[in-house]
């Protein structure tokens, strides 16, 4: 399993991914799922991956040689794409091609080749953008109404994002809430685990502002975990107990 | 979609279910999913249902006439089962029979006939018990290590249960935490909705102690919702911001 989140707020872009992969619960490894796939003087492009590791690794490996794009008939590379939108098209084409190639040799329905990517990046003079790319190569873009996208084990960590992330949330706050979302996910799904990789890109500066790996001994993350657990318990304790009178509706009883 | 929770703490049993059903987002209705399927002087048995409504309604309708049990060769009814364990076997047999009958006529894979039930109840002189029954009729029992079971849209509301429900949690507190779990679920999935049906059974007294339907205008639930939202925001705000230095690992960059 996997959990990756991209957050796109006014101040910039945050990309986060866990590093646990598993093929069954008896085969658990650590793999990097967050990568900077292109970094030049005028651009930075990052990708988080979820799903079949053989498909996503294959897709990313194709990027260096460039991707033959059906619409232009040319081989295009991330180093030369004019926009992050075009980068999403190129990576989508790479993912689709990788998945098709692997589907052909696998041909056994019981082997899953589903894969999804988050692509986030910026070019100079353009605002940062964030996309969720599906296995078929199509994608959706993150907008200010719901300024985040998730892939992998998305549900446990979604309520906290829904309640606390807005487009005007400062970037440091977005990192913090993102980590709370990881904390909630790891509490409930063992297949998502530390370390967490994290990069930020500030709007107006198309480069990695901060890149950090949160290891199990990370003091800030441990404190965040504890504070969040304690605050949740205190919050629940502070809510008065229900005082419902018993009012059984006849429809409660099966006829 | 559906969300149902059963909580089995030392003080007793709590059963909760939402009432929203949907066949696509353009066909949403209110159906009762929590029922008292048997109530006699010495017993109470409740069921929550999730999944195919045609399967679960069919299964429950079979209970009145009694179920032919393959192991005893006899027609058995919930009014006469000696234990709640036997009740789970009878209801499991009813569910399996209903699902098989409907699978035979449907025969189209695109129509889902999956269904699950929570069965919770008590007999005099016996502790309350709680089971999760699968479509094949097999089931698992709730134990004190994880004193709750969920069916339907389980993930959004699970973290709060994992953090706050223990076997020693008082029953009123369990109702409150259960409602927080519903609040988290309804915040993130529109297909789970009010009213919420709720019944409690106190250990040592095999009857409905409290039955209540929480309607949209319920003051306590609205207050719980507000307090929980505000407390989460305050809890997140109280956590210091991360101060990570940028330490990019060379492996971050795709070669």
Concise structural overview:
The first copy, chain A, has 255 residues and is an alpha+beta fold.
Describe the structure.
Two copies of one chain form a homodimer. In chain A, 31% of the residues lie in helices and 29% in strands. Chain A is α+β, with helices and mostly antiparallel strands and 255 residues long. Chain A has one domain (3-229): Glutamine Phosphoribosylpyrophosphate, subunit 1, domain 1. In chain A, the strands form four sheets. The first copy, chain A, has a five-stranded antiparallel beta sheet with strand order 12-1-2-13-14, with helices on one face. In chain A, strands 5-6-9-10-11 form a five-stranded antiparallel beta sheet, with helices on one face. In chain A, a hairpin with a 2-residue loop joins β1 (3-9) and β2. In chain A, α1 packs across α2 (84-106). Chain A is globular, with a radius of gyration of 21 Å. Chain A starts with a strand and ends in a 17-residue tail after the last helix. The relative contact order of chain A is 0.19. At the A-B interface, β5, α3, α4, β13 and β14 of A face β5, α3, α4, β13 and β14 of B.
Write the layout of secondary structure elements.
Two copies of one chain form a homodimer.
Chain A: E1 3-9, E2 12-17, E3 20-22, E4 28-30, E5 34-40, E6 43-51, H1 53-63, E7 67-69, E8 74-76, H2 84-106, E9 115-123, E10 129-133, E11 139-141, E12 148-152, H3 158-164, H4 171-188, E13 196-202, E14 210-214, H5 219-238
Helix pairs in contact in A: 1-2, 3-4, 4-5
């Amino acid at each position: 399993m996997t959990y990756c989140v991209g957050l796109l707020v006014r101040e910039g872009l945050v990309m986060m991914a866990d590093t646990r992969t598993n093929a069954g619960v008896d085969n658990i490894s650590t793999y990097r799922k967050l990568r900077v796939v292109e970094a030049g003087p005028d651009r930075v492009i990052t990708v988080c991956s979820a799903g079949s590791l053989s498909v996503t690794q294959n897709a990313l490996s194709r990027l260096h040689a460039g991707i033959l794009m059906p619409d232009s008939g040319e081989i295009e590379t991330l180093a030369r794409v004019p926009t992050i939108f075009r980068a999403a098209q190129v990576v989508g084409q790479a993912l689709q091609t990788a998945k098709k190639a692997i589907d052909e040799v696998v041909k056994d329905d019981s082997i899953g080749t589903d894969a999804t990517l988050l692509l986030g990046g910026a070019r100079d003079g353009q605002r940062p953008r964030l996309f969720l790319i599906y296995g078929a190569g199509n994608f959706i873009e993150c907008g200010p109404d719901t300024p985040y996208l998730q892939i992998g084990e998305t549900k446990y960590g979604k309520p906290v994002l829904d309640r606390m992330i807005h487009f005007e949330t400062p970037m440091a706050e977005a990192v913090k809430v993102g980590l709370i979302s990881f904390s909630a996910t790891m509490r409930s799904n063992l297949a998502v685990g530390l370390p967490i990789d994290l990069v930020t890109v500030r709007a107006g500066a198309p480069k990695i502002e901060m890149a950090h790996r949160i290891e199990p001994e990370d003091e800030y993350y441990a404190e965040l975990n504890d504070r969040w657990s304690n605050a949740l318990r205190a919050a629940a304790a502070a809510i008065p107990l229900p005082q419902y009178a018993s009012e059984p509706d006849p429809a409660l009883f099966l006829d």
